[in-house]
Amino acid sequence: MDKTKVTKDFDNNTLVIERTFNAPRERVWEAYANPEQFCAWWGPEGWETTVKELSLTPGGKNHYCMKCVDENQGEWFNQESWGLMVFEAVDKPVSFTYKDYFSDAEGTLKNDMPTMTITMSFTEEDGKTKMVSRGVVDSKEQLEQLVNMGMIEGLTSTLDKLEAFVEAK
User: Fold this and answer.
1) CA distance 81 to 105
2) Are 56 and 96 in contact (CB under 8 A)?
3) 25 near 124, Cβ under 8 Å?
4) DSSP bridge pairs for 106
């Protein structure tokens, strides 16, 4: 059974991803907010993440790099992918909203790639945390581009790593 629920709404340019973790909300929140913890799980299997800057506050940023370290991933091996999250709203530990950009090592945005506005929400019940990620892009074509480049598979793998990380502590 797939633990990650994915809803693609091409009519509204929206991607919703839901997952429940057997960990308290504060634990899941810290996995996003703490740079060392974020690096321990962010990115798909076979990729390592480094953070240049992470401040989970309104106006703060998370500028990070994912690098493929798995030789079995063919042409991806040794490739880097830079991302920039710019946080717009933060309600610790309930939710945060950010613009998700593709960037380079200097933080320059890649304007040929889609930008997604993502709201992350965390609800705790009986010691478990339900995470809902609601992402919106400007067009159906942008959502199709992200889906076709493997975003859902990458996020599912990333959330598998987050689950192992937050449930191990």
Assistant:
1) 9
2) yes
3) yes
4) none
